[in-house]
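== Polypeptide entry ==
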Amino acid sequence: MKEKSIYWREFFGRIVVMVGIWSRIVCGADQIKQTSVVNVGVILSSSSWVGKMGLSCINLSLTDFYSSNPHYNTKILLHINDSNDDPLLAASQALELIEKSEVKAILGPESSFQAPYTIQLSEKFKVPLISFAPPPPPASTSSNLNSPYLLRVYNHFSQIYAIRDIIKTFEWKQVVTIYQDDEFGQSIVLDLIHALQVNSSN
């Protein structure tokens, strides 16, 4: 559990660094000498493990970021919303964040099924959407998933390669793939099967 916490803290730390750099670009050179607040929206589900861990790690990462970079005059102000795993609620929250809070970027949502509605809004208002949701199933036909305003930072290949290397080390020729039947499992299983076939495992 401790290793997972460290992983997610580092993961969200990289996102915070990206937002920090982006905030300096948004504020412009003429505002660098004075403190500028950059509004950033967060859409997570408080009922999910990823949402709870994500929010905790985002706050810790912000603290770490500004402790290590005291010279930064741009301050990220988070506007946190609970999507409750509801795609329509996530979209309405994104609209409210854009129109009322005037956010410059949005972190989330955590589910690819929530993303299409939110991506449409980010495209319309030209607000970057930084999503750490797993990629959608291969059968997905939504063109919004290729939006230039969508930055997907999730990468499951590190897990796939770790599993592949374990199988290779023990020289297993047959393995049984057990996966969760949701968007994460559907997106990862084909890549996992391909990696295992390269190892000549069935």
Remarks:
- DSSP finds six helices and five strands in the chain.
